Amino acid sequence: MARVVVNVSEAKAKLSKLxxxxxxxxxxTIAKNxxxxxxxxxxxxxxxxxxxxxxxxxxxxxDFDAESEELNGLxxxxxHDVSS
Length: 84
Hints:
The radius of gyration is 29 Å and the shape is elongated. The chain has helices at residues 8-13, 15-23, 69-76; strands at residues 3-7, 27-32, 35-40. By secondary structure, the protein is of the alpha+beta class. The model has no long low-confidence stretch (mean pLDDT 89).
């Protein structure tokens, strides 16, 4: 199959035809000022996402959202010694 190169203005006017050509196996390149910019290619779905891949691999501690004196000292200041 031959490669078809069209300029942007022609691609705008003939987009439906170009899409049909790609669908039927043609290679279509869109150029701007005779410089190839993009290729039209058929869409290939990636498949469905699989949810829950990390289930059971991450453990959130019960005190996850509990206040920490050390962090409060860092954010809000004070005489808290963080080296202990």
